[in-house]
Amino acid sequence: MVKRMKNSSFIFLQSDYPELFTLTELAEKLVSIDPNSSLTKTRLFVEKLVLLMGEFERYEFSPKDTPNIRINKLHAAHVFPDNVKSLLDTIRIAGNNATHNGDRTEKEAKYILKKLFKLAKWFYETYEGEDLGNIEYEPQEYVSSENEISQLNQQLAELQEKIVNYEDKIAQLNASENTIKQRQKRSSKVAQKITFDEKETRRELIDPALRKAGWECDSELLSYERHKTMPQKGRNMAIAEWPCGRKQADYALFIGTTLYAVIEAKKFSSDISTDLHQSKQYALNLKTQEGIQLLGEWEGHKVPFLFSTNGREYLEQIKRYLVCRYPFPE
């Protein structure tokens, strides 16, 4: 038998989902000695979890579907909300980077384990209907031996060969339209408890949303504060930490070298429906500098568009307009 780590944060998975639990054990045991392998195990967890959710939801994937496509399909079918999709994508991409680049760090692997815990907790509470309370992820301070890793890998291989029959559970989860609706409500309610600090909100929610909208965006790499990133002709760039007097805008949106907007990023739990105060301060304190162009000035504001976001879904009913007379190009 393999020696279990004491008080694993993922212990709630052990009884009903032993394969998933074993993957978390491997990821935790490898995090210090082989971060790349730890990240590939967390990615495998996501791939297994997505297939399992497909079974539970009676959703048929195409054999050609990649893990990314499966995630997108389940998201489009309202199986999980945006912040859960963000967790799935973050873990999947980190695992891909570990596989292809092989230069990941222990710090990143530990960060991803925290994300994996949030995802696993959401999954368990949604599909088991059990409230796990306010438990938080506790890193395992544990030095693993090669023998332990080998035994766990063997155990995982044996679990993967077993065919688990979830027919009774699937029938229970889909017993009626009301049962399905209640599960969807529970999914959303549980997802609302997932917390992101401001940095996590930028990295996992706002960055992807800006990229989806057509902006080049990576708040870790495209940063004026960290790397003196500057806008460039022919590129639409969202540059993080842009100087605005003594403050820094979380994002400055450039089309070519022209500045069109600034964005204030709030943590996921913040209410931003009426909060443009900080972005207004950014716009008022912007300074002209070599290499950028400003469109004009509106009551002291040096950009025409101001935004505040917490990474949540955009709501039309709270949209605020800044009317300006500048003739924007087509």
Topology:
Layout: H1 18-30, H2 35-56, H3 67-76, H4 82-101, H5 106-128, H6 146-161, H7 167-173, H8 177-191, H9 198-212, E1 216-217, H10 224-227, E2 236-244, E3 247-255, E4 258-265, H11 277-285, E5 293-294, E6 305-309
Parallel strand pairs: 1-2, 4-5, 4-6
Antiparallel strand pairs: 2-3, 3-4
Helix pairs in contact: 1-2, 1-6, 2-3, 2-4, 2-5, 3-4, 4-5, 5-8
Write a compact overview of the structure shown.
This protein is an alpha/beta fold and 330 residues long. The protein is built from eleven helices and six strands.
Q: Could you explain how this protein is built, in words?
A:
By secondary structure, this protein is α/β, with parallel strands linked by helices. It has 2 domains: 11-191, no CATH class; 215-318, no CATH class. 47% of the residues lie in helices and 11% in strands. β4, α11 and β5 (293-294) form a beta-alpha-beta unit. α1 (18-30) runs antiparallel to α2.
